[in-house]
């Protein structure tokens, strides 16, 4: 309003146009122009002609006043665009800096969570692998001690086998720590058979197997999870249930891998999730599967661990 009033006043008093400052209102109006005040631009050109006849101005003088003010209005608009662009640049720079700080913070949090997850995974691996092996070692050592006086030769033979088992445990631990051969394509059935053979040899407990004739090619994580569930189930059957017979059944459906480990040990009165069972559940649930433990009275009493894991994109073993 102030700029417009001064502009109209300069038209009514043409002597003011001899000074350059009469163009400053047009410059300011152009700089402060918005979509709502865009109607000012045609008025800058029309006002001099509205007062032409009243003031007796020539066409050249009137056209000069209108043109000068329009030109300075456009210069003001250009200056406003430059200023806005510079302001936007500063805002974007501040936003990028803020985003970089947030990204750095999130990266640190993700790294911390990754380390924690890896630490938990390593603790589960050590518990599931070495815990199972140490149970076998303890049982075999107890048997060797009992045979030491009466059957030293048999005790010596058992100790030799125990030494081989200890070496195997050391290799297992190295594989876990260094994650050796993690992506190798290995037959799950052969691994289960080898695991069962070692279990029978070092514990003396009967373990029967029911394995599929046609195997499916599965991911490393699924294969490792199945092996850990078998180890933990067998270990718990001996340690807590004092079982003398175990039966392991492994099968493939169209979309799932199913595992069942049953034993004739003492029934579990109250199902408490210890570290081993909790680790098993976390492993299975992380792959989208389920794990159930059931135990009941009967003749004979049966305790069963049943596991089911979905197979995503699995193909028959050996097929492309």
From TrEMBL:
Coiled coil regions, renumbered to chain: 82-109, 156-183
Cross-referenced InterPro entries: HATPase_C_sf, HATPase_dom, Sensor_HK_TwoCompSys, Sig_transdc_His_kin_sub3_dim/P
EC assignment: 2.7.13.3
Enzyme class: transferase
Top-level taxon: Bacteria
Reaction catalyzed: ATP + protein L-histidine = ADP + protein N-phospho-L-histidine
Keyword annotations: ATP-binding, Coiled coil, Kinase, Nucleotide-binding, Phosphoprotein, Transferase, Two-component regulatory system
Pfam families reported in the protein's UniProt record: HATPase_c (PF02518), HisKA_3 (PF07730)
Gene3D superfamilies the UniProt entry points to: 1.20.5.1930, Histidine kinase-like ATPase, C-terminal domain (3.30.565.10)
Signal sequence, renumbered to the chain: none
Domain Histidine kinase/HSP90-like ATPase: 221-313
Entry protein name: histidine kinase
Organism, as annotated: Paenibacillus cookii
